[in-house]
Amino acid sequence: MEPLVAQHKKSGLSSVMQYIKLLRVSQWVKNFFVFIPTFFAGEIFHLDKIGELLLAFLSFSFVASSIYILNDYRDIESDRKHPKKCKRPLAAGTVSKPAAWVLFIIFCTGGLLLAYIIKLKFFAIIAAYFLLNLGYCLGLKNISILDIIIIAIGFVLRVKGGGIITSIPVSEWLVIMVFLLALFLAITKRRDDLYIKQSSGLEMRVAIKGYSLELLNILLAVISSILIIAYIMYTVSPVVTQRYGAYRLYYTSLFVIAGAFRYLQITYINKDSSSPTKNLYKDLFIQIVLVLWILSFYIILYLPDFQIFS
Q1: Which domains does the chain have, with CATH numbers?
Q2: Of 25, 77, 128, 133, most Cβ neighbours within 10 A?
Q3: Interatomic CA distance for residues 110 and 157, integer angstroms
Q4: Using an 8 Å Cβ cutoff, are 219 and 237 in contact?
C-alpha cells in the first residue's frame, strides 16, 4: 500500500512540475528588470516602492507566462523537431491542450487585472507588452531582425514599467543600455539556433532563414561594442553623476566588460547560448561578475562614505 501512495505522490509532483515548466517560472527572473530604475536611483530600500515593484513583477510574470503558453501551443509541431524544445510540456504531451488554454486565460487575465489595479499607466505598459508579444507569437517572430528587436523592446517595457510604478524618471541612457543588452542576448540565442540547424540539419524557426553565422557574428561584434561604450558613457555622464552624487560609477564598467566577454566565450567557444536565463543559473563566472557589479554599484550609490572607490 505504501509504495502505491508513494508512486501516486511522485506522479502528482511530476504533473505539478510539468505545469511549472509550461509557465516557465524559471524565466520570471527576466522581470526583475522592473527593479532597475529604483536600484539605479539609489532607492531600492524604500519599502513602499518595493511592495509596488513586487506586484509589478508578478503582473509581468503572469502575462509573460500566458505568452509562453500561447507560443508553445502554436509551436507544438516545430518544437517536436528541436533537440531541446521537444521536451516542453505541450510538445512532449505531458500537459493537455485544454489545460494549457485554461492556464493561458487565468494568467493573462490575472496579470492584466493586477496591472489595472496597481496603476492605469502601468496597465498601458502591460497591455503594450502583451500586444507586442501576441503579435510576436502570431507571426512577427518569423521576420528576421524584427524578431530580435521585439524581444529587446519587451525588456525596455519592463524597465519603463518599473519607472512608472515608482515615479522614477528612466533616462535615455538606461533605455539604450537595456535595449542593447537584450538585443545582444537575443542575437546569441539566434546564433545558437542557427548552429543547431547546421549541425543537425533540422528546420528550426522560420526567421533563422534570414540569418547566417557571418551576419550574426558581425551583429554580435557591433552590439557588444556599442553596449560597452554606452555603459561607460552612462557612468561618466554629467547628468547621471550629478543626479546620484556619485563620480566613480565607471569602476563598475569592469564587470560589464567581463560579463560581455564571458558570454561571448560561451557563445563562440562553448556554443551554448540557447538560454540566457539558464546560463545565469548555471555559469559561476557570470554569477560572480553579476554579484560584484551589484556590490560595486551598491557601495558607490548607497555607501558614499566608503573610501574603497575614492
Answers
A1: 16-168 (1.10.357.140)
A2: 133
A3: 19
A4: no
